[in-house]
């Protein structure tokens, strides 16, 4: 049952959100809001009677960053404080680069409904060794078409990291790993797929890695 639980979590990470019908610019009653053309952080904040800074921080962003049409935002439910931390601040130590050396990102993270991508894809360069980006526990090892062999690590504060496109896996489920520990070897013709989640909410891996690169 435990293995099935983590597999279902993994499926939740990778399944793409379906394209929904055209949204009305009216605020949704749920805790999410779909961005429409002309929206701004401050305009949306006024609709929901919250601080623009709180709204941006809840979504791991700042008010200086652009919004994208049809982007899905989480809306404060009244319990969040103005000083709410961004997801990146949940990480107590700097994350390490998951490869031996820095490689170019060929597919970036995207929350756009028409082109969602919940992680980042590195080019298959000179790096072959895949390393743990943060200390944690190996909670799932498996194979899936499109991602080949993959590993899910569980970290503090409900954070998970996923490493896909591995040819060989060199850890086992239940194993505790430290940052930079060897996880496996990349496939010969694919670059690393790397994803970071807080529970089922995907985070931008490039932002997570910024402090550690």
Please specify the SSE layout and strand pairing.
Blueprint: H1 2-14, E1 32-34, H2 41-48, H3 52-58, E2 72-74, E3 105-107, E4 120-122, E5 129-131, E6 136-144, E7 148-154, E8 159-169, E9 176-177, E10 182-186, E11 193-198, E12 201-203, H4 205-210
Keywords: Signal
GO molecular function: metalloendopeptidase activity
Protein name: LysM peptidoglycan-binding domain-containing protein
* Overall body shape: elongated
CATH class group of the largest domain: Mainly Beta
Q: What is the fold named in CATH at topology level of the largest domain?
A: Glucose Permease (Domain IIA)
- State the fourth-level CATH superfamily of the largest domain: Glucose Permease (Domain IIA)
Report the biggest beta sheet as strand number plus sense, adding barrel if it closes: 10 strands, antiparallel
* Rg calc: 18 Å
Q: Strand pairing plus helix content: what structural class?
A: alpha+beta
The helix content, as a percent range, equals 10-25%
Mean pLDDT: 79
CATH architecture descriptor text of the largest domain: Distorted Sandwich
Distance between the termini: 37 Å
Domain count:
2
What is the strand tally? 12
**Strand content bin:** 25-35%
- Low-pLDDT runs of 5+ residues are 15-30, 80-86
> How are helices and strands ordered from N to C?
HEHHEEEEEEEEEEEH
């Amino acid at each position: 049952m435990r293995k099935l639980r983590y597999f279902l979590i993994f499926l939740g990470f990778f399944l793409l959100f379906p394209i929904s019908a055209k949204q009305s610019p009216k605020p949704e009653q749920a805790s999410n809001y779909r961005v429409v053309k002309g929206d701004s952080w401050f305009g949306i904040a006024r609709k929901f009677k919250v601080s623009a800074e709180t709204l941006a921080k809840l979504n791991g962003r700042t008010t200086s960053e652009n919004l994208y049409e049809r982007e899905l935002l989480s809306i404060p439910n009244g319990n969040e404080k103005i000083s709410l931390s961004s997801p990146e601040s949940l990480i107590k130590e700097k994350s390490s680069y998951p490869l031996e050396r820095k490689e170019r990102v060929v597919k970036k993270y995207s929350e756009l409904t028409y082109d969602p991508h919940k992680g980042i894809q590195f080019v298959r360069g000179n790096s072959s060794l895949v390393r743990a980006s943060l200390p944690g526990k190996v909670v799932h090892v498996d194979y899936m078409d499109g991602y080949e062999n993959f590993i899910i690590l569980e970290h503090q504060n409900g954070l998970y990291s996923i490493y896909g496109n591995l040819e060989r896996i060199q850890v086992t489920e239940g194993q505790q790993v430290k940052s930079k520990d060897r996880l496996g070897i990349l496939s010969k013709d694919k670059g690393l797929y790397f994803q970071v989640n807080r529970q089922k909410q995907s985070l931008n891996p490039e932002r997570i890695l910024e402090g550690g690169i």
